[in-house]
Fold each of these.
Amino acid sequence: RVLVNIGHPEGEDDIFVAPQIARTIKPHQIGGVRFLFDNIIESTKRFKSSSGFGCILSHSMGLGKTLQVICFCDIFLRHTPSKTVLCVMPINTLQNWVSEFNMWLPKYSDNPEHIRPRQFDVFILNDQHKTLSARAKVILKWAEEGGVLLIGYELFRLLALKLMSTRKRRSNKAGNCERSGTEMNRRLMESVHQALVKPGPDLVICDE
């Protein structure tokens, strides 16, 4: 077994890497997971009262940063009160992220002691979600139920900035009656903005 929170405060439980990952993970990757834990969680008891920090995992290409982040997501959602993680990435890597999540942290397992299943859902926003309502449906379900949301940089930028442009157009049309459909879209965008940006998720991961 691979212990993550080495030297943790007295009274806190040991936290271990999922067994299926522990059998494969390399020493430098264990160090990366511990680095993420120390900088983002630090202490499970003090987590609620801490404002939190961020960090940069700057391993070179091919050294398994995706595995380390997936392993940490499991720890983060399992051992803290947090429920939402947003992963923003180049769109051409999104499908690889989906495959890696399903490989390392499957949703189901016939032998939990050998393969510990994940306790969260992985939500995906890709080219199949073309309309605002389709995108909002995925985002709001993720925000309500919790889990990991995978999204490309361009779509995230589009959704994050769209509310601002909607507000500008609305102010330019002061005095005009808005159609109910436009008002509905505005409310939808406000809900999406709350989920993605302000206050946003509990953890944001940016894959460069």
Amino acid sequence: MAVNPASTPANMAFDAQTEPYININSDIHSSQPTIHVTKRHDRSTLMMLLQLLIKPFAAQLVSNDTVFPAGSPQLTPHKRATKRCRVQERKVEEIYLYDIVPTVGKKSKLGVAQKRMPGETTTEPAAAAAGGIKEEEEKKKKRRVYYYSGGGWQSPANSEHWFFVSELAKQLHPHGYTVTLVSYPLAPNSAAPTSFPAIMRQYRALMELAEEEDEEVVLAGDSAGGNIVLAVLIQALMEDERDGIERPTCTSVMAISPSTDLTRSNADMHSIAKKDPILRVPFVIDTAKKWCGEWSPQDVRVSPLYADLQCIRKRGVKVHGVVGRYDILSPDAILFREKCNQARIQGEWLDWDKQIHVFPLIFRYGLREGHAGKDWVLDVLRRT
């Protein structure tokens, strides 16, 4: 099962001389696709130079010598986040959560009114800032993003992740959102057979809390985190279908450069490896094995691509995503997207040729593509 990006159908064509954006059908067999894809092929000179510069150092960029103990790692919020936001730590089902709340400075127009969530351990008062939120804003529906960071299932959130989630928090706050970073247990000491059930227990608890708070929830994540949010959604809805119960669920998922097939059997990975300046095939094979542990790499709890996705359509959960074509994980992400469309699942995807793994997270370095990717994610979340 492989997709050759070079052999895309005619209705996926792109005219770079007339328009940098084009909306395409991801499924040529459907006259009315349910997955709306925005496709781009442009690349800035700065991005091209960056890719050339970092490619020789790919191994160092993704290497991690730290092995974390079993269980959820307690994190120290990075200064890139604490300079912009207030970070509140709490724990639900033995997994640490970090609520990221915009602070109000002289240059900020945002008021902060953070209601205490059940299970929160912080003692910091949640008072509204002077000038507070307008009455009409308080009446807006409450929404929350639970963000699962990537890192090969072995590393917690890094500085780019903290900056990204703090940006989401600041930009989405006026739209009723709170952003929460999830510090899930990491491999190899907490591989999927141990970690995934714990993540599922927390997800169920968070959805119960959301229902009590009348709060809509979006699951979001990049790379390994994108894998987790897709797998959690699928597993939860499969269990609901099996039990004949409609338990509370998230309303949508945002998966940025997700890893969807841990068999690493897609032959297209090897041709794209020549263009990918960050990931190497041996690396993604190794991280997949460490996460799978005793589970088969075809188990849908680690490889969402092998799941029956009808359960998502039946519950009306939207599946959004971002993929860059200079990413060896992109062929499997595209297959997953096409499978979503075949299942008639609603969603929006950004498909950008010549872009690297998790490129929206590099916006803080001033790259145009990073800003555009981040802004696309924000736009979808505002409208979701």
Amino acid sequence: MKILLKSRYEKFRRQHIDKHMTANKCDSVMNRKNIFNNDNSCKETNTFIVDDPAKVKRICEGIADGKMMQSTEMFRIVKCELKNTGARKPNCQYKGGLLTNRYLKVKCENKLPVHFDDDIVNFGF
């Protein structure tokens, strides 16, 4: 069970955390990290959290297993969206956008993030 959970966290980390990610690197990073659907079609959207993995893990501190948790800290993210709908690897082409002041919703298991659910903009009210 622990090995499976660790591999789920490692997959989350590979697919969603990259502290050096920029909006213009979507094509190269998606390809290098081998982020595709199971049938080798291109993933429609993928979100990268531009921060340190330790900060992202803190979202799950003190949370019961299997629950969605919203971060209390804000993050910068890069959202990569497929430009050529219906494409298959290795022909995926993405448009990236940097978004700031975002709260994150992730699914936590054993105090580790295992699924990225959504981002929520903070309007500063």
